[in-house]
Amino acid sequence: MSAEGNYYVPDQSRLPIFASLGLFLTVYGAATKLNGGGWTIFMLGAVVMAVVLWSWFSTVISENIAGLNSNQLKKSYVWGMGWFIFSEVMFFAAFFGALFYIRNFALPWLSGEGDTSTTNAILWSGFEAQWPLMVTPDMAANGDAAKVVGPGQNMSITTAESIWSWLPLWNTIVLLTSSVTVHFAHTALKNNNKKGFNIWLGITVALGILFLVLQAEEYIHAYSVDLTLDSGVYGTTFFMLTGFHGAHVTLGTFMLLVMWLRSVLKGHFKHEDCFGFEAASWYWHFVDVVWVGLFIFVYILG
Amino acid sequence: MAHGPAKGFTRWLYTTNHKDIGSMYLWFSFAMFLLGGVFALVIRAELFEPGLQIVEPGFFNQMTTMHGLVMVFGAVMPAFVGLANWMIPMMVGAPDMALPRMNNWSFWILPFAFAMMVATLFMEGGGPNFGWTFYAPLSTTYAPPSVTFFIFAVHIMGASSIMGSINIIATILNMRAPGMTLMKMPLFVWTWLITAYLLIAVMPVLAGVVTMMLMDIHFGTSFFDAAGGGDPVLFQHVFWFFGHPEVYIMILPAFGIVSAIIPTFARKPLFGYSSMVYATASIAFLSFIVWAHHMFTVGMPIAGELFFMYATMLIAVPTGVKVFNWVTTMFRGAMTFETPMLFSIAFVILFTIGGFSGLMLAIAPADFQYHDTYFVVAHFHYVLVPGAIFSITAGVYYWLPKWCGNMYNETMGKTQFWMAFIGLNLTFFPMHFVGLAGMQRRVPDYNQFFADFNMISSCGAFLFGAAQIMLLYNVISTIRGGKKATDEVWENPEGLEWTVASPAPYHTFSTPPAVK
Ligand code: HEM
Ligand SMILES: [Cu+2]
Fold first, then answer.
1. Separation of alpha carbons B11 and B27, rounded Å
2. Number of domains chain B contains
3. Which CATH topology does A70-300 take?
4. Does residue B457 fall inside a structural domain?
5. pLDDT at A3 over 50
6. Do B16 and A233 touch (CB under 8 A)?
7. What does the alpha-carbon distance between residue B435 and residue B460 come to, in Å, rounded to a whole number?
8. Exposure pattern of A257-276 as b/e (b: 16+ CB <10 Å)?
9. Chain B contact present for A254, CB below 8 A
10. Which end of chain A has less neighbouring CB within 10 Å, N or C?
11. What mean pLDDT, rounded, does chain B reach?
12. What share of chain A is helix, strand, coil (3-state, %, to 5)?
C-alpha cells in the first residue's frame, strides 16, 4: 500500500498506439499470408512491433535509472509479470488438457469402447486406440498401414537403444541445469558479485541455445521418420506442445540474452535493483516447469 | 502532474489517464452495442414473419454470429473495463491505474481487432457464420476463408483483456490508499478483482482453442478431426472451459454496480457485505467446474452429465445469497426511484428470472428438450440484457454526474427505462414459450405455429433499440450542459468517488487520501 508518496504516472506516450498498430499489422499480415497472400504486411508489422518494444523497454529502463520508479511502482511490475506468467500457464493448460482428453476419452471412444461400438464399426472399422498413435482412424478405415512403424520412430523412451541415447533426457538435463545456473546468477548478483553474475547468466543463455539445438535435432529426426505435424493426433499434440514450449524457450533465451548484454555492455543491475533480470529469470523457471510437465506427459508416459 | 488534459485529438491516442481511457472504452463499447444491435434487428426483422423474406439464410447465419461476438466481446466486456478504469482508481484512492501505458495499449487494440473482425463480413465467402460459439468443424472444415482473420482478431482482443486484467489486479492489490483494507473495498472493486482473475485464467484458454483451429485449418493437425484421432467434442470442452467463466465475467462486475446503487437509493448500508464477497468468490470458483452443462446433448458419459448437472445447480446457492442481500437491503429502506435505481431493481427481478430458467436448463434430462431452442435464447438474454446491459446503464446514470459534472434529465432517463424494460420483456419473454414448444435457435425460418409470438418479439426488439438511441441522446445532452451536479450527487452515497469534485478533476488522489 502506498505510504511512500507519489506514484509515477507517465505522461502521454506514443508507444501504445504504435504497439496496437504493430500488433494489428502483424496479425493481419499473418492472416493474409495464410490465406495465400504475401509476407509484406506481416513483415511491416513485425518491424513496427520490434521498434516499439525496443523503445518501450528503453523508456522504462531510463525512467528507472532516473529514479522515477518508486518501490510501489516496482511492485506493480512484479504483479504484472507474475500474472502474465500465470496466463501463459493457462495457455499451456489448454494444450495439456487436449492431450489428456484425446488419450483418455477420444481415442478409446473412436475404437469402440463402452457404448460406442457401432460408431466404430460403421465409421472407423478396424481402428484400435494406441499411444503413440501410429494408425489413425482414417488409415484404419482405409486399410492403410502405418507410415510410422516400430521402435526408434516415435519419441517415447521405450524406443531408444539406451536411456543415455534418449535425447529428451538430455534436454531435461540441460534445461534443469539452466534453471540452477540462472539461480546462481541471481545469488551472485545479490552478493554484489557482478562478475559471477555475468558468467552464470552467460552459461544459462548458452544452455538455452543448446536446448534449442537439441530440440531442432529431435524435430529433424521426427520428420525424417514421417512423424509430422499432419500425421495424425500424435504428431499434432507432440509438435504443438513441444513447439509452443520451444517458442517460449526461444523467447526466454532472448530475454536472458538481452539481460546479459545489458549487464556486460551497460553495467545494468545492482543487487537491489534488478527487476528486468528477475522477471526474465521467473519466465525461465516457468518454461522449465512446463518442460518437466512435457517430459512426464509427452515423453515418459508417451 | 497537476496539469489537465492535452489539447487536440492526439490526447486520445497518446493518453495515459485512466479517465480518458475509461471514456474511450465506454464510447467504443456503446458504438459496438449499436452495431451489435443493428445485427440483432436484422435478425428480428427476418423473424418478424415465418418464411424467408429479407436476408439470405447464409447472411442470417453471419448476423447471428456477429451479433453474439460483437455484443460479448465488443459491447459488454469493454463497457465493464471502461467502468473499471473510471471508477476503480477513484474508489481505492489511487492516482491512476497501476500501469498507465499498458492501459492505453489494452484499449487501442480493440478498435483494430473489431475493425478486422467486422471486415470479414465483406471478405470473399462472407464473415463467420458458425455461431458465436464457433463449434468445430463448422468453424474449421466448413468455415469461410475469413475465419483466419476472425481467429487473429480473437487473439489480439484476448491479449487486450489479459493486459487489462493484469492492470486491474495490480491497481487493486498495490494501489489502495492507506487504511483501505480488502474488506473495506467497495463491492464493485471486489467483483472486478475476481473477474480479472477469471479473465486471466480463461482468456489464454480461448487463445489456445482458436490456435488449435488455426492449426487444423492451415497446418493439417487433427485436434478436432476424428479421422486423425482428434474429436470435435474436444473443441466444445475447451471452448466452454473458457465460455462458462466468460458468462460470469459478464455478470460479476454487474453485481458490483448494483451493490453500489441499491444502498444509495434505499438509504441503508448494503446487507451482508462479507457474504457478498464470499458469494462472488464461490461463484467464480464454481464457474470453472460446470462448463459441460452446455454439452448435455453431445453424448457424454452419464457420470459427466450428473456431475455437471449438480455442480451447475450449486451455483444457484451463492447467486441466491446475492439476490437475498439486495432484496434485504431494500427492505424497509427509504427508497426513491431515480433512473439508476429503476434499472437496478429491474436487474434484480429480471436477472432472477434468468437464473431460474438457468436452473431449468441445468436439469440434464430436461435440457435434451430445451437445448438449442429459443428457450436457451430467452435464458441468456434474461441474464445478459437486464444483467449486464441494465447494470451498465444503471452505472452510467449513477456516475455520469460525477464524470461530467452535470445532472442528466431524469424524465428522459425514466422514459428510457420504461421503454427498455417493456421492450426487453416483449422481446424475450415470448421466447420462453416458443422455445419450449420447440422453435430452434439460429434458423431464419420457422413454423407458422410460432408466428404471433415472434411478431411480438420483433416489435419489442425495435422498441428496445429505440430506447438505446434515447440513452445516447440523454448522455450527450448531459455532457454538453444541464443542471450542475453537487460533489455528492446523491444523498449520502458511500465511497471515495463522491469525496472529489464533480466533474472529477483530471487527476484525482495524486496523494492518497486517508481512509478511516
Ligand atoms: C443460476 C445461474 C445459471 C444457471 C444454472 C445457468 C445454466 C445454463 C445452462 C444449463 C445453459 C445451457 C443451455 C443449453 O444450451 O441447452 C446455459 C446457457 C447460457 N447461459 Fe446460463 N446459467 C446461469 C447463469 C447465467 C449467467 C449469469 C449468464 C450470463 C450473464 C449466463 C449466460 C448464458 C449464455 C450466454 C448461454 C448460452 C450459450 C450459447 O449456447 O450460446 N447464464 N445456462
Ligand atoms: Cu454456462
1. 15
2. 2
3. Four Helix Bundle (Hemerythrin (Met), subunit A) (1.20.120)
4. yes
5. no
6. no
7. 17
8. bebbebbeeeebbeeeebbb
9. no
10. N
11. 96
12. 75, 0, 25
Q: Ligand 1: which atom is nearest the Cα of residue B362?
A: 10
Q: Which ligand 1 atom sits closest to the C-alpha of B250?
A: 30
**For every residue of B277-299, which 3-state class applies, written as one string?**
HHHHHHHHHHCCCCHHHHCHHHC
* DSSP3 helix / strand / coil % (chain B, rounded to 5): 70, 0, 30
Whether residue B379 contacts residue B455, with contact meaning beta carbons closer than 8 Å, is answered with no
Residues B112, B235 share a domain? yes
- Smallest CA separation from ligand 1 atom 29, residue: B247
Same domain assignment for residues B257 and B215: no
- Segments forming the whole domain that contains residue B192: 19-249
Q: Which of B232, B249, B266 is the last residue of a domain?
A: B249
The model's pLDDT over A150-199, given as tens digits with 9 standing for 90+, comes to 444 456 665 556 677 788 899 999 999 999 999 999 999 999 999 999 99
Q: Dump pLDDT digits (tens) for B340-387.
A: 999 999 999 999 999 999 999 999 999 999 999 999 999 999 999 999
| pLDDT for residue B37 is more than 90 | yes
CA of B310 to the centre of ligand 2 (A): 13
Q: Residues of B with catalytic annotation?
A: 67, 96, 132, 160-161, 244, 246, 248, 259, 293-294, 319, 322, 441
Q: Is residue B510 part of a domain?
A: no
Task: List b or e across A38-64, with b for residues whose CB sees 16 or more CB atoms inside 10 angstroms.
Answer: eeebbebbbebbeebeeebeeebeeeb
User: Does B115 share its domain with B100?
Assistant: yes
Mutation choice for ligand 1 from B361, B377, B384, CB with most ligand atoms inside 8 A: B361
Q: Which amino acid is at A232?
A: G
CA distance B90 to B495: 9
**How much is the pLDDT for A2?**
36
By C-alpha distance, which of A127, A5, A47, A103 is closest to B231? A103
Smallest Cβ–Cβ distance between B148 and the set A14, A35, A73 belongs to A35
pLDDT digits (tens, 9 = 90+) for B338-350: 999 999 999 999 9
Residue A116: predicted pLDDT: 80
Phi then psi dihedrals of residue B406, to 5 deg: -120, 150
Contact A23 B511 (CB under 8 A): no
pLDDT, position B511: 87
- The pTM assigned to this predicted structure is 0.95
- In a mutational test of the B interface, the residue from A34, A128, A139 whose CB has the highest number of chain B CBs within 10 Å is A34
Domain residue ranges in chain A: 1-69, 70-300
C-alpha cell at A28: 493481419
| A122 C-beta neighbours (distance < 10 Å), count | 9
Residue range B114-152, pLDDT digits in tens: 999 999 999 999 999 999 999 999 999 999 999 999 999
Q: What is the pLDDT of residue A151?
A: 40
Write the ipTM: 0.95
Does residue B417 share a domain with residue B328? yes
According to CATH, the topology of domain A1-69 is Helix Hairpins (1.10.287)
Task: Cell numbers for A227, please give them.
Answer: 512423424
Q: What pLDDT is stored for residue A163 in this prediction?
A: 72
B322 confidence band (pLDDT: 50, 70, 90) = very high
Does residue B9 lie within any of the structural domains? no
User: Are B112 and B213 in the same domain?
Assistant: yes
Asked if B397 and B344 count as a contact pair (C-beta separation under 8 A), the reply is no
Same domain, B369 and B244: no
Examine the domain organization and report whether B63 and B120 are in the same domain.
yes
Whether the predicted pLDDT of B21 surpasses 80: yes
CB count within 10 Å of CB B183 equals 9
Q: What is the pLDDT of residues A92-120, one digit of tens each?
A: 999 999 999 999 999 999 999 888 888 88
Ligand 1 closest atom vs CA B247: 29
Instruction: Report the CATH number at residue B478.
Output: 1.20.210.10
The Cβ-side half-sphere exposure at B6, using a 13 Å CA radius, reads 14
